[in-house]
Structure formats: structure tokens, C-alpha cells
Amino acid sequence: MATRALTTTLDPVDPTVRSDAKNLADRLGVDTPVEAAVRAMLNDVAHGTRVVVLRAEDEVTPAEAADILGVTRQFVDRLCEDGVLSFRRLPGSRHRRIRVQDVVDAAAEREERRAGGAALRAAIGE
């Protein structure tokens, strides 16, 4: 049985990758949410943005979770210790692994809190 790679990186440094992404994006319609999402990703690559594709059930290290969240690894460790991020320990080790879906959920929750705080500041400032 063939194994799938944990991540697929679309690196726009390679001109062939950028060209292929643009050609594929141009061929897609925007009729479905899936097509729209794939087209947006391909357009990002075509315009020089590096894209990493992860499955929701994949696991990442605290350092990788920090990169996704845009915070420090130490902050991710604190989120794990405080129970904000679920994790598992590798057998016989202190090393943690965090599900990508949990990281995405935490990022969405942080963004909601930021938006709420900005709305409160705007209302108070009026």
C-alpha cells in the first residue's frame, strides 16, 4: 500500500509551479465552493504565495502549530497546558502532536475574539 505524504508544498519559486497553477486556476469555474477554494489556492501560488496543504486529521508539532497560528512555540505549549489545544504525547516521549483540525479551530476562535474586541473598541470609541 502506498503511503501519502503528510504535507504537499506548492512552492512558487519554481516558475513551472506558478505557470501550472495559473493554467489550472483559469480552467476552473467558480460554480461550487470546492472549485472556488481550489481556484483561490491556485491563484495564490500563481502570484507567488507558498501554499501548504494539510489534511484535518494530520498531526503537527507545536512548532508547526505555532507557524500556522502565527505565534511562538512557547505560546502553543501554554495553550496545550491550559487545555485550549488538545494534543497527544508520542509513546515514551515528552514530545507532543496536535491535530491540524484543532489548530484550525483555535485559529478561528482567536480570530472571532479579535473581531469581537475590535467591535467593542470601535463602539466605545464612538
Per DSSP, what share of the residues sits in E-state strands of 2 or more residues? 5-15%
Order of helices and strands: EHHEEHHEEH
Number of strands: 5
What is the percent of helical residues?
A: 55-70%
| Helix run count | 5
Order of strands across the biggest sheet?
A: 3-5-4
Question: What is the CA-atom radius of gyration, in angstroms?
Answer: 18 Å
Mean pLDDT: 85
Q: Name the overall outline.
A: globular
| Contiguous uncertain segments of 5+ residues | none
Structural class: mainly alpha
The main pleated sheet reads as: 3 strands, antiparallel
Distance between the termini: 62 Å
Outline the structure in words.
This protein is mainly alpha-helical and 126 residues long. The longest helix is centred in the last third of the chain and has 26 residues.
In short:
The chain has 126 residues and is mainly α. The protein is built from 5 helices and 5 strands, in the order βααββααββα.
Please give a handful of descriptors for the protein shown.
three-stranded antiparallel β-sheet, 126 residues, two-stranded antiparallel ribbon, single chain, mainly alpha, 5 helices
Topology diagram in text:
Blueprint: E1 8-10, H1 15-27, H2 33-46, E2 51-53, E3 59-60, H3 62-69, H4 73-81, E4 88-89, E5 96-99, H5 100-125
Helix pairs in contact: 1-2, 3-4
